[in-house]
Amino acid sequence: MEEKRVDIEQKFDLEAIEKTFTSYKKGQMFDGVVLIKRQDGAIFNIGGKNDAFLPKEEAQDYDNILIGDRFKVVITKSKNEEGMIEVSKDLADNQILQTQNASRLKLGSTFSFVPTAAVEDGLESRMGQFQIFVPNSEISNKFHDKRKCIGRQFDAVVTEIDKDEKRIVASIKILEEQIQKTNEELFWNSIFINKIVKGKIKKIMPYGAFVDVGGVDCFLHISNISYQHISSPDQVIQEGQEYSFKVIEVDRENKKVALSLKALQDSPKKAAIKMLQVGQAYDGIVVKILKFGAIIKLENGASGLLHIKNATEENNRQIYEIVKLDQPVKVEVIDKDEQEEKVSFALVRQ
């Protein structure tokens, strides 16, 4: 009778053990051996009654795998079309590598990771067998909603590490602040008036816009956006867009930089002067009388000086004796300077 009870208990224990062998979950890692190698994959024994199937595409080195080879795999499906557990060698190899990389980290080490979950007190992820945790206070300043961090890659610095518990606490913010400080030092060491910089429109205001140039906020006043009259900056620029600007003011003491968009554009006067050909005659009108000549404005908007010596060959004559205010005249372009926006005319006798 006693022997029968022992047999029953032994049988019960064996069934319990067998049950644990056949309880497999997605994401679990197991060590096993290749039993059969097929064209589409390998039959892989990981213990218990059910063999696993390793698809060819889940083992980067599949061509080199031999029957009897032993290695680790990760379960990807609890059951495939053949009724077998499906596994991946590549996933296991990656997890092993990630665990090795995590185990080498020390306090102050930097590493990259991708958050996979946003919990009440921060962000979570995994690096192989290590849990990665970033407290709310150490999440990036760029994200007000931590859920938007999920799936994005971040650089972080290790602030706590427990290798026995396989837990790493990290900060995204500390590293971002260090990078920001370095970028600001580089910016202030290299910025100067008339420098051409690229910047992204960060925020548009009624009177201008804040522009991010290498991580430093600069200001673009509405008067420096366009030569044309605009009532709002968003008539020309858009938030999030990148543009080239010219630096027109640098105040290192107060950490302020003023930018100009229109300084990189031709002024209407310069554009009109560019159209003129030296030696060509144009119709214009006298808009101002000076002591030594007159200012002539052409039909295309360009204006320039008609000096007295280029208006008459007679000595001791005054310009007002030759041309009158608002008088239509024909003049020849004898010289022009586009950069200085200057044009010299000679009067064409009609």
Distance between the termini: 140 Å
Can you identify the CATH class of the largest domain? Mainly Beta
Number-wise, the strands total 21
Low-confidence stretches: 1-21
CATH topology type of the largest domain = OB fold (Dihydrolipoamide Acetyltransferase, E2P)
Strand order of the largest sheet: 6-10-11-9-8-7
Count of alpha and pi helical runs: 4
CATH superfamily caption of the largest domain: Nucleic acid-binding proteins
Radius of gyration: 39 Å
- State the helical fraction: 10-25%
Helix and strand pattern: HEEEEEHEEEEEEHEEEEEHEEEEE
Q: Kindly estimate the percentage of residues that lie in beta strands according to DSSP.
A: 35-45%
CATH architecture of the largest domain: Beta Barrel
Number of domains: 4
Net shape: elongated
Summarize the biggest pleated sheet.
6 strands, mixed
Mean pLDDT: 89
**Which structural class do you get from the secondary structure elements?**
alpha+beta
Account of the 3D structure:
The protein has 350 residues and is α+β, with helices and mostly antiparallel strands. The protein folds into four domains: 2-91, Nucleic acid-binding proteins (OB fold (Dihydrolipoamide Acetyltransferase, E2P), Beta Barrel); 105-176, Nucleic acid-binding proteins (OB fold (Dihydrolipoamide Acetyltransferase, E2P)), CATH 2.40.50; 191-264, OB fold (Dihydrolipoamide Acetyltransferase, E2P) (Beta Barrel), CATH 2.40.50; 268-347, OB fold (Dihydrolipoamide Acetyltransferase, E2P). The chain has four helices and 21 strands. The chain has helices at residues 2-21, 89-104, 172-190, 268-275, and strands spanning 29-37, 41-45, 52-55, 70-77, 85-88, 110-113, 117-119, 122-127, 130-135, 154-162, 167-171, 196-205, 208-213, 216-221, 242-251, 256-260, 281-289, 293-298, 303-307, 328-337, 342-347. The strands form four sheets. The chain has a six-stranded mixed β-sheet. A hairpin with a 3-residue loop joins strand 1 and strand 2. Residues 1-21 have low confidence and may be disordered.
